[in-house]
Design a protein that fits this description.
The protein is of the alpha/beta class and 409 residues long. It has two domains: 4-210, Rossmann fold (3-Layer(aba) Sandwich), CATH 3.40.50; 229-394, Glycogen Phosphorylase B (Rossmann fold). 49% of the residues lie in helices and 10% in strands. The protein has 19 helices and ten strands. It has helices spanning 4-18, 49-57, 59-62, 66-71, 75-85, 90-101, 109-119, 139-146, 157-162, 166-180, 191-201, 242-255, 274-286, 301-309, 326-333, 346-353, 363-375, 377-394, 397-407, and strands spanning 127-130, 149-153, 185-188, 208-210, 229-233, 262-267, 293-297, 313-314, 338-341, 356-359. α12 (242-255) crosses α17 (363-375).
Length: 409
């Protein structure tokens, strides 16, 4: 499965290197799966997903020699495991997360020491950046062991922590709050995240830096759809609101004002997502509309860009508390206007880019806004062009890298 944070981190590492900064990208848990050249090539995989699980479940595994444990960190074996698991479910991972947050005191302490010893063989870092706050249990040991400052990129932790089982949720939040006090900077992609995580974790304002996410713009050109097409590109799962968008599409077809309207769905789809997608397809069959919908799972980068260029309007109506939404930048890079629910970070992003409309997170309201753009091509074109201009000027991965470096000074 593809991972949005992995895309961001991989692209950022490449951009930092182009700026002349020595950058080391170290994968944890699983091999990176990205649609651009892998910037972690040459670095071992630490905290291998299989080993971390066995550390948690079997005390004897923690006492095995490192050379035995490393056998379980084989990239081939981890890719096989990733294909079987496909998704981390909060209800199954509460105890493991708490152990990870305990860091040097947790069941994965030997994994932390192995990571530290390897980092000591690399050029001494000025800054260590953790890709999310769920890794904050690593910070204390790495900070002391390497004598470096530590930053964390906050994105997506709140909905994950809130979805943990009752017996783990409070403890996990408390551990995150305790561990992040030791960090030097909090890098957030939006003011929405800054506000929410300050409320939940009591973050000191002077250490918060808003650095908008960026994307690699190579290859993006304005869209040229052959017919009216509503598009979605994100993980094919309930969290991203795909079921809501399917209902919106059914409503638009019922109204009949855009008779040739099609829906194109793209993005990650793993084994755990397939039952959900099949339910949506059954719903479309019942509505007599399956032939008007296309599903394009797990596209590579070139195919993804072509996907965006075939769209008239774009929407990913996620309601769980989206911290940013790289897919909005991707759609706007292709001059495709977006319609998003007026929740979470979406109002901020739409206001900043000027590339779309906001609607209440209901089927009628979303349908009204999408229909407005489909029936008014000139307005849609202006919004798409405005959004594309904003993305080219302020949301490239190169600009993100410059802002990221400035935030750490």
């Amino acid at each position: 499965m593809y991972c949005g944070n992995c895309f961001r981190d991989n692209a950022l590492a490449a951009a930092l290197r182009k700026l002349g900064h020595e950058t080391l990208l170290v994968p944890l848990y699983l091999p990176l799966r990205v649609d651009e050249p892998d910037q972690s090539t040459g670095a071992p995989i630490f905290y291998g997903g299989i080993s971390v699980f066995l550390d948690q479940k079997f005390p004897w595994f923690r006492r095995l020699p490192n050379w035995v444990r490393r056998l379980f960190a084989s990239p081939t074996l981890l890719r096989w495991a990733a294909g079987k698991a496909a998704r981390t479910r909060p209800e199954d991972s509460g105890d493991l997360l708490i152990s990870m947050l305990r860091g040097e005191e947790g069941n994965q302490a030997s994994e932390l020491e192995e990571l530290l010893e390897w980092l000591k063989t690399q050029p001494k870092p000025d800054v260590i950046c953790l890709s999310n706050a769920l890794l904050s249990g690593l910070a204390r040991r790495l900070r002391i062991g390497l004598g470096a400052k530590v930053a964390v990129m906050l994105q997506g932790e709140e909905p994950f922590l809130d979805s943990l089982p009752d017996n783990c949720r409070r403890q996990a939040w408390n551990l995150v709050a305790e561990r992040v006090r030791e960090l030097d900077w909090f890098i957030v992609p939006s003011r929405y995240v800054a506000t929410r995580m300050t409320e939940r974790l009591g973050l000191p304002q002077e250490r918060i830096r808003v650095v908008h996410n960026g994307i690699n713009l190579d290859g993006y050109q304005p869209a040229s759809p052959l017919q009216s097409t509503l598009g979605y590109f994100a993980r094919m799962c309930p969290d991203k609101g795909l079921d809501l968008l399917v209902d919106v599409f059914i409503e638009l077809k019922r109204r009949g004002k855009i008779p040739n309207l099609r829906l194109k769905v793209g993005g990650g789809c793993g084994p755990s997502d397939e039952p959900f997608v099949k339910k949506l397809q059954s719903r479309l069959i019942s509505a007599g509309l399956l032939n008007d919908v296309e599903f394009h799972p797990n596209l590579d980068r070139a195919a993804k860009i072509q996907f965006y260029r075939s769209l008239s309007v774009f929407s990913v109506p996620a309601l769980y508390g989206e911290a940013f939404g790289l897919y909005i930048l991707e759609a706007l890079a292709a001059a495709v206007p977006v319609v998003q629910p007026d929740v979470a970070a979406f109002p901020e992003l739409i206001q900043t880019t000027g590339g779309g409309l906001l609607a209440k997170p209901t089927v009628p309201s979303m349908a009204d806004a999408i229909e407005e753009l489909l029936l008014n091509p000139n307005k849609a074109r202006i919004l798409g062009e405005t959004g594309r201009k904003a993305v080219l000027e302020a949301f490239s991965i190169e600009q993100m890298a410059k802002n990221f470096v400035a935030a750490l000074k």
